[in-house]
């Protein structure tokens, strides 16, 4: 039996928990975000964050944590306890902005001690997370990042990829897609002097240890009203 046959015939590992980042202010989306948090802005007939929850449920996630900030009650009112998608949703409320890494660190007690998915609630992407579920993180690897070709609003990219690992010096550079699979230790063990900090500095600290994978499929960081409108038009067809 080939390695491929073994992989296809082996039982899938239990799907990890997931963190959906949804606490940002979305200032560039104003005036739309004066009444709705950015992840609740509709595209293709439903809020952006609902697309993310549906994809997570589809690959077997049974527990998701959503962090809440600006107008977070609107997200909680819409998603509820997650039962309609067959998963449990818990909420991590941030009284003040903690940025991406700070928000995840605060939510770690709800996520458990196993690697978990992190998905930006304001990103659209059709990447099949089940591909990662079939490839557990190797021993000693603290996480895996999805990278995409640079969009016009980030022409310089964020990181390069060197032999499958994240690199700050490798060329070409690509843009972080806002989708990752992280071991809790990458955050709990990160040396920091403040509660508020971003994932970018955590990733930089772990260059050469984090896996990185380039994805050339459908992806959009819905950061402005114009990008939201373009995505809506694209998904009509």
Automatic annotation (TrEMBL):
SUPFAM superfamilies, alphabetized: Nucleotide-diphospho-sugar transferases (SSF53448)
Pfam families per record: NTP_transferase (PF00483)
Domain spans labelled Nucleotidyl transferase: 18-129
Cross-referenced CDD domains: NTP_transferase_like_1
Residue spans crossing the bilayer: none
Gene3D superfamilies hit by this protein: Spore Coat Polysaccharide Biosynthesis Protein SpsA, Chain A
UniProt keyword terms in alphabetical order: Nucleotidyltransferase, Transferase
Protein name, per record: NDP-sugar synthase
Organism: Microbulbifer halophilus
